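Possible regression after last week's pipeline update?

I re-ran a chain I had predicted before the update to compare outputs. Posting the input and the new output here so someone can diff against the archived version. Not blocking, just want to make sure nothing changed silently.
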Amino acid sequence: QVQLVESGGGLVQAGGSLRLSCAASGTIRRIDAMGWYRQAPGKQRELVATIALGARTNYADSVKGRFTISRDDAKNTVYLQMNSLKPEDTAVYYCNAKLWTVVGRTRGDYWGQGTQVTVSS
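New output (post-update):
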């Protein structure tokens, strides 16, 4: 069993900052990549940022220069520092992990429950 637990969402004014955290727990053997996706009302879920082994990062163009993703491998935790937030960043943010479990023979794709981020204008 693997669980991803997110925290750090909330309400913030435009121009403000928030930091999201996502901790993975369970029978984890190795995490290849972790990332954040978001889904606004009436829209499809979209990639925000990912970080892979070796700290290779990837960002959506809309957040480059404003958001920073990082990971703490000792804690199986990924963070998303969000600065200069805009109303269009309002969405439910989901944590994702691509990982191998202790007993699994294939890499699995796991999701958190989501955390609401609301940016007021």
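Follow-up from reviewer: compared with the archived run. The chain is about 0% helix and 60% strand. Marking as no regression found.
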